[in-house]
Amino acid sequence: MSYQHILLAVDDSPISYAAVEHAEKLALALNSKITVMSVIAVDPFKGVDFYKVAPAVTQYLFEAEKNALGRLKDIQETLIHHGVSTVETKVIRELPPATGILEAADELGADIIIMGSHGRTGFKKFFLGSVAQEVLAISPLPVLIIKSAQHTDS
Q: Domain UspA: where (predicted)?
């Protein structure tokens, strides 16, 4: 099977940069297009009066989007500099991360999703969930999960 359009889902973690390296190698080998994307989601504030925290949430979203756009631009420039012919970026707002990734893959007509996994295990995985695991379980597309080499969770 040929992967002509790679959806590369990144966040601000070091494992995302390992996923970038894998996506780059695959894109160069197959002459694929890459769309690099991030999801900016708001976590619900349970038991907090929204009107008191609204300015903080607005500022958080502004900063999160600014940081995501900068990170995506840096990754895009690096991939182009390394020879990937077509690299686009996309930011998804206000959706749970797995939902945003899957909707972007469908909207863009991606052939494969590449993303990192933080490698959480045990209780932390249960409590925090795993975006990579959710995408892998639901996606109709192939998903390449790049796992962290080190497991610092105990």
A: 3-147
pTM: 0.83
pLDDT reported for residue 58:
75
Residue 118 lies in a domain: yes
Tally of structural domains, the chain: 1
Please list the rounded mean pLDDT of every run of 10 residues in the chain (154 residues).
92 90 97 96 54 68 89 97 97 91 97 85 53 92 82 42
End-to-end CA distance of the chain: 39
Alpha carbons 68 and 80: distance in angstroms, whole number: 18
Q: Is 11 inside a domain boundary?
A: yes
Four-CA torsion 107, 109, 115, 120, nearest 10 degrees: 60
Q: What is the pLDDT of residue 12?
A: 85
Q: Which residue type does 62 have?
A: F
* Per-residue model confidence (pLDDT) at position 42: 64
Note whether 79 and 27 are within 8 A (CB): yes
CB atoms within 10 A of CB 53: 12
Inside any domain, residue 152? no
| Euclidean distance between CA atoms 131 and 117, whole angstroms | 8
Q: Extract long-range pairs of 57-63: CB within 8 Å, 24+ residues apart.
A: 61/93
